Amino acid sequence: MSPIVNEVEAVSQIARKERIFEFNQTKAIQAVAFLLKQKHPTNSDNFMRVLKLLYFADRKSIEETGRPITGDRFVAMEHGPTLSHLVDLVNQRTFNNSEWDEYIEKDEYEIRLIKDPGNGKLCRYEIDLLKSIWEENRELGEWEVAMKSEKLPEWVKNNPGSSSCFIPLSDLLDAIGKSDWLKEIIESATESAEARHLFGANS
Question: What is residue 14's predicted lDDT score, i.e. its pLDDT?
Fold first, then answer.
């Protein structure tokens, strides 16, 4: 069995243990689509590579703003960190994949954009950050990106071997030199989630 498949199998087993940010599926799909559109004209890429680029983007966004783009959960896998909800969407492991399936299809290890969801949920900062992450890694293949991700301190600290585990937000903040932000980030994320639930917002 492929090591990518082994990682996929492990993600679902740990998917609901730590939740600080709220996953925004529409926004995450738009972020995936934005990266796939950088591979014009095929609009396709290795799914492990795409998810690691999004991990880099979420990580950088937390470092600069205190919040990620996707709100997904960070998971340490055998070949570096990834994003748990997006892995489930790629592999049809959610209760409702209809939104994902409308825009993106999977063929073995590749995902391809079949319809453009636009980028209305992404702010200018997020679009610019995704573009920057793409440009920084555009010459790297999926295994080179994986090796790069394995050098991140939060993964090294939580290296699961052939298994998997969540990367605590505290470990990620330590790695980016923002450990003193933990309490403020948790309070802000909680307030944002409460506001969305109260007013029905999907920002």
Answer: 39
- What's the pLDDT at 8? 46
Which residues face 105 on adjacent strands?
112
Tokens read off for 159? 């290296």
How far, in whole angstroms, is CA 142 from its chain's centroid? 15
Span of 6-10, 91-95, 157-161 with lowest mean pLDDT: 6-10
Alpha helices in 91-203, H assignment, sequence order: 98-103, 124-137, 142-149, 153-157, 169-175, 182-199
Pairwise CA distance, residues 96 & 94, whole Å: 5
Question: Rounded to 5 degrees, what angle do the CA atoms 183, 201, 90 make?
Answer: 80
Q: What is the CA radius of gyration of the chain?
A: 16
DSSP 88-119: HHHTT-SS--HHHHHHEEEETTEEEESS---S
Distance (Å, rounded) from C-alpha 93 to C-alpha 96? Answer: 9
pLDDT band at 192 (very low <50, low <70, confident <90, very high): confident
